[in-house]
Amino acid sequence: VLCRSADIRRADMRLTCQKIIDNIINDDDKFKFGRTKIFFRAGLVAYMEKLRSDRLKACGVMIQKHFRGYLHRNRYLRIRTATLLLQRFTRGYVARRRVHNIRRTAAALVLQCHVRGWLQRVWYNRLRYVITRIQACARGCWARER
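Structure (tokenized):
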């Protein structure tokens, strides 16, 4: 737990232990290598256990961090997908409504155009009829006077 996997030499465990202890303990007076054991001064084993416990705690926190990140990322992606789906349907609905209103407006303009033209033709024909009747009466009066 206290070393990197690159530092471990399976063939020579004594060298591996020396590398680990050299990395952790700076003072050579605090430990001594025997033939089959390592002897530590008072409190050094507790210090190394504390380092080991801290490293395991840090590894646990790292695992929790990555797992929580995974959960929240998946939750975010689900929410994002649902939001995009709702936006897509809403935008489609709004676009269809807008096109429907544009078509209704265009149809209303065509109807207004035809109705206004018809009203003008009716007004013009009535006016022409009235004017021709007035002209006919006036000409008749003048003809009778002459």
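The mean pLDDT is 89. The chain has two domains: 1-41, 42-145.
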